[in-house]
Amino acid sequence: MTDPWVALEPGADPAERVRALHRAYETFTEAGTVPRPVREVVADSWRRSARAGVRPDGTADVELTDGDLGVHRAEHPLAPVVPLFRELMGTFAADGRHLLAVCDAHGRLLWVEGHASALRQAGRMNFVPGARWAESAVGTNAPGTAVALDRPVQVFAAEHFVRRAHPWTCAAAPVHDPRTGRVLGAVDITGGDGLAHPHSLGFVQAVARAAESQLALLAPARPGTRAPRLAALGRDQALLTAGGRRVRLSRRHSEILVLLARHPGGLTGDALLCALYDDESVTPVTLRAELARLRRMLGPGLLASRPYRLTAPVEADVTVVERRLAAGAVTSALTAYPGPLLPASQAPAVVRLRRHLADGLRAALIARRDPDLLADWAHAPWGEEDLDVWRSLAAVRPTAAVRARLAALESELAAPRRAARPGPGRDGRARPDRLRGLS
């Protein structure tokens, strides 16, 4: 064979190759050896798949749905070239009873479009938007292997690692960021045995190159035109990025910017004073001095007064998490949440916002009942003693370790109650704040 990335050499009999691949596949799954005529690229992929624990009878997990999928699509760098993919491949896919698919760099399918009957058949093996077709999740397949190897590749029939994909043939090529060279994802054509032809691999390669050219033509944002960004989650001192500068703020200045970013219309001096200080003896003079120092640090033009307000929109990470939660994008919201808001702050308004944000995330995680998302929260520093989340995790993933941790937390909760109020009567609702992990 002249090209190891192509499934069939010219003149090969597809039916005979299918039979030979099935025999080789069964040999591998039973004995772990890879006989001919399996290509080396496929043999290597089978071995990686087996080491990753992929089950031949398994299927892909759907990781992104509804709001999560919508947010991930909208924010993904390949979104601007999806119309190009449709223009170049859509008619070919529909007329040939094939599918056009686009995945991200983690092998998650973002778009799957094409012939209606092919879509129905593909849905039976979870070849659908939001499903993770990474090689480490479902073994050898064109989009997953293409991003794993950063090479265009064709996968034919029983070359697929999971049996449910054996009726399919696919060809995929990675798409790169033209500025950094980073793999953004892959474009794929999936269908029947007719795609086992060198032309289909050359086709997706050409489409991927066209997408990279289109991305290169998109005008990059000019320096200084991007909205200022404020990172305040999971840190005691917020970080402001504006005008090409990164400024680490003091705790008080962090609190002020968080509150002003959430109130674009501004806050009066009295309102800001109440939001920042629990102590009524603090005078407006103290606040004005803090604002004067903050204005000098930020430079001219960003902080105005009467009322105190920011003169340009500031994209705060708090707002990003809230927006994703409101859209039902729980996975994306959790991804954007590196920890509680300004954890050491005691400013009354910041404390309320910190608890509100964490409560919203916790409620969404518990309602979603996704064991991976619950485990991410429970094993984070802020969730180690979150009893409600551990109870929810134990309900959907009752491993010995999870049950043991839950028992320890419940015992710790019960001890002070027994000491303070012996006997029956526990309602199970009130608990020490430290067992919630909210602030």
UniProtKB/TrEMBL annotation:
Biased composition of type Basic and acidic residues is found at 424-439
Listed InterPro entries: GAF, GAF-like_dom_sf, OmpR/PhoB-type_DNA-bd, Sig_transdc_resp-reg_C-effctor, WH-like_DNA-bd_sf
Q: What is this protein called?
A: GAF domain-containing protein
Asked if the record carries the keyword tRNA-binding, the reply is no
Q: Does the keyword DNA-binding apply?
A: yes
What organism is recorded for this protein?
Streptomyces cinereospinus
Q: Where is this region: Disordered?
A: 413-439
Q: Name a Pfam family for this protein.
A: GAF
Keyword annotations for this protein, in alphabetical order, are: DNA-binding, Transcription, Transcription regulation
Q: Where is the OmpR/PhoB-type domain?
A: 244-310
Tell me which domain of life the UniProt entry assigns to the organism this sequence originates from: Bacteria
Composition bias, Low complexity: 413-423
